[in-house]
Amino acid sequence: MTASGLTTSSLTPPVGGNLRGPSWKPTMTPLELIHLPALMELTHGHADVTIGLIDGPIAMAHPDLAEARIREVPGKLSGTCSQDGVACQHGTFVAGVLVAKRGSRAPAICPGCTLLVRPIFSETTSGNGQIPSATPEELAAAIIECAETGARVINVSAGLGQPSARSERALEEALGHASRRGTIVVAAAGNQATLGSSAITRD
């Protein structure tokens, strides 16, 4: 499994893509494309709404996250960055999309919500440009832990590489567990503008 969305050179829909429907305009931002600005004007979110972030660790000291309500799910990986690696940058980027302060460069969709950080991507010191990875079983465990810790929404910023039948079953069971608890799992679309068939996209 690899991180999805590590490069964001373009957030516009692909040429000839299905996202360019009748309401699409070339000047639209990604948030306008999915009609979020109107909702964001109505609310900043509420502390009772907990969003699980399954990604890399985040830079807790980032000024745009200074006012955010952030909790960590205890585990073998720390939710706080100790270095500025790819996993940290991506985790911090997605945290900013969700709960950064309004007026920052990040979208800050729900700054009033509580962010529950559960990293699956470890920080690396190799500097060889490898994309952080984790196993499908690690993702399944993270989904269950976030749901058990009270996440109402879980953001999964990852895509599956070559899952086995066994790992697919583990993910299906984890997604079913989250669903039974009333937790909504939101999965990244990826950078290739295609949807593969996996336990995540079939759920």
Tell me what the structure shows:
With 203 residues, the chain is α/β, with parallel strands linked by helices. It has one domain: 3-Layer(aba) Sandwich (Rossmann fold). The chain has six helices and seven strands. The strands form two sheets. The chain has a five-stranded parallel sheet with strand order 3-4-2-5-7, sandwiched between helices. It has a two-stranded antiparallel sheet with strand order 1-6.
Distinctive features:
single chain; 203 residues; alpha/beta; Rossmann fold; 5-stranded parallel beta sheet; two-stranded antiparallel sheet; 7 strands; 12% strand; disordered N terminus
Annotation, overall tally of beta strands:
7
**What is the CATH homology-level superfamily?**
Peptidase S8/S53 domain
Give me the strand/helix succession. Answer: EHHEEHEHEEHEH
Structural class: alpha/beta
Number of helices: 6
Strand content bin: 5-15%
Summarize the structure.
The chain is built from 6 helices and 7 strands, in the order βααββαβαββαβα. The chain is an alpha/beta fold and about 200 residues long. Helix 4 runs parallel beside helix 5 (about 165-180).
Protein topology:
Blueprint: E1 2-3, H1 30-33, H2 36-42, E2 50-54, E3 69-72, H3 86-99, E4 114-117, H4 136-148, E5 153-156, E6 158-159, H5 165-180, E7 184-187, H6 199-202
Parallel strand pairs: 2-4, 2-5, 3-4, 5-7
Antiparallel strand pairs: 1-6
Helix pairs in contact: 4-5
